[in-house]
Records
---
Amino acid sequence: MTRLKSRFLVMATLVGWFSTLSGCSFLRQAKNDEMAMARQVSLRGEQALRQGHWLEAEQLYNRAIQHASSDHRAHRGYAEALWNQRAYDTAINHMEKALKFSGEDPKVMVRLGEMYLEKGYLPQSKHCAERAIATDHMLARAWALKGKALFRAGELNAALAGFHRAVSLQNQFPSVQLEMAQIYRMQQRPRRALATLDVLSRTYGKQDIPQEVLYLQGLALKDIGRYEESVEQLAQAANQGQPDAKLLFELSESQWLAGNPANARLSLLEALSHRPDHHPSRQLLARIEDNRQALTANMPR
């Protein structure tokens, strides 16, 4: 009887053991199936993101998260879709989750830092950059992020150091090169600004140089007294899209300094048609009018 009872216990134990294994295997398979489904839906969300279909991408990534709540790719894509619909706080929340579930991937860290930066959370942005650099010191975007956070905090020399490191790792980095040029101008180093912009402009075709590059080149040329060349660059910038009052004012001032008050006046009138309250334009227009009246009064009769 004791032997029979012993056999029964052994059989019961084996059955329980196999049942547990079977249950674990079933749960593991179900989890794998859910993860596979999340990946498939995320791929469709990624395609929608590339096409700029933000709402569709949001819906797809939301479905992916329902399948696998710890899938960092789904949270990251969901964050990007929300960000492009200006749901900034929720987007940041999901990018923070993406960072956690990715095991603190430095690329995800940098993207989160970029979001912090755009919202003006400078300490958080800088912290993300430094953590990413500590993990991967060859990541150019991390150095760029650090430089941008420092620039916005007013730490110009430290920002330049970060930017230089970024361009040493990725020599074509337009957003970084533009900010470097801005810092050089702020430090009254226009020739360095111009040299940086010249390197950047050579990466584009002659007709494809972005408006902001042309604009900063024009300002740097004006800073060093090359007024006619400044007019050329600023006029080219003004011809690209709709110029704002600030650009037209800078063009007008260069035209005035180059000895062409008639064109300067026309540029100012156009600037004031965009922004009638633009004080620098009104001031320069008054100077031009006063000068014209003085010349007229002094003309022989």
Note: The chain is about 80% helix and 0% strand.
---
Amino acid sequence: MKQSDNSTVLTVSQVTQQIKALLERKFVDVWVTGEISNYTRHSSGHHYFTIKDDKAELSCTLWRSIATSIKVRLKDGMKVVLYGDISVYQLRGRYQLNVKWVVEEGIGKLELKFRELKERLLKEGLFDESHKKELPAFPSAIGIVTSPTGAAVRDMINVLRRRMPSCRIVLCPVAVQGPGAENEIADGIREFNDFGDVDLIIVGRGGGSLEDLWAFNEETVARAIYSSGIPVISAVGHQVDYTISDFVADLRAPTPSAATEIAVPDFREIDVQVREMVTRLRSGVGRAIEILRMRVERASRSYLLRKPEEMLSGLQQTVDELHSKLTNAAQLKIERYQSGLKLVDEKLNALSPSAVMRRGYSVCRTYPGLEIVRRFDQVNADDRVKIELSVGSIFGKVDKTAED
């Protein structure tokens, strides 16, 4: 085959780099199951091995920084589930799995199922804090969904009776492991909601392996807890154990005993607090009474209470004096206003046209227009006029006009 003039020739490194970019972008956080072979632990602390099935094999690396947190002891022939990222070792042009987690095959399947269910329920909102219900401060009755024969139920009952003897305990006995256990647990939660008459539900069991605790990782239990109208505390296993029930419940307790300590307050501590409050209340009331008593004593020694009639008569005299001053001031102001009005009235009368006409003057107007005639050229001969006098009017006709 002849190379075309416009074709690009890649070096081995360039091809490997492009393959590396494609693989490492595509295969991130993958789970791979198979059997270990050619296992080697290098003096550097890194682990190298191959994982295979009946049709293929895949090179794997487990770096020292990751290996220190892996509890599984790797060996040839072990069936495992690996979690990691695909990368390319450029020097050899070989792709491999950089391992980030290792679990034995049986446990690995459960771990994978746990992660898948957790992610799905998280997206649905079953773990949202907004859905969490507040626990009652003083529950009168608590329902427990657990095995009737395990040590966990005895511990919970003992703690509840010690901390709050008045709290009623209602036990719903169920299987907590094995086939069908998840359905019994879910039914117990639903029965308490329908008929239990309890204020709080505790769901849990003692410690065990992942398989032993698996019933609390089932979806039916998670949805029963989520749908419960009664607050639920999840108390499964030990502090290091986490189940799906823990994420859905309104509160997660590290152990069953811890759940009962969270559920109810210690009546002895409450008794101490009440006694302290009563003491403070009595002390406060006593101080308040003493302060009031001192005020009454001071008031009883006051002049007002000893001779109230003298105090009242003095006040009455003051009122009378103020009334007289107010009356006099009002009368004086009225007289001033009257004098001012009289002066204004006299000025208005002096300027009034009627007063001027009473002195012998008259007003000439055109007729019928009634415009005041101020100049001789406002009228002509034969025009009619009206002359207003102090008493009555005269109507006439203009004979002639003259400027002087």
Note: Residues 12-114 form a domain with the OB fold (Dihydrolipoamide Acetyltransferase, E2P) fold (CATH 2.40.50.140).
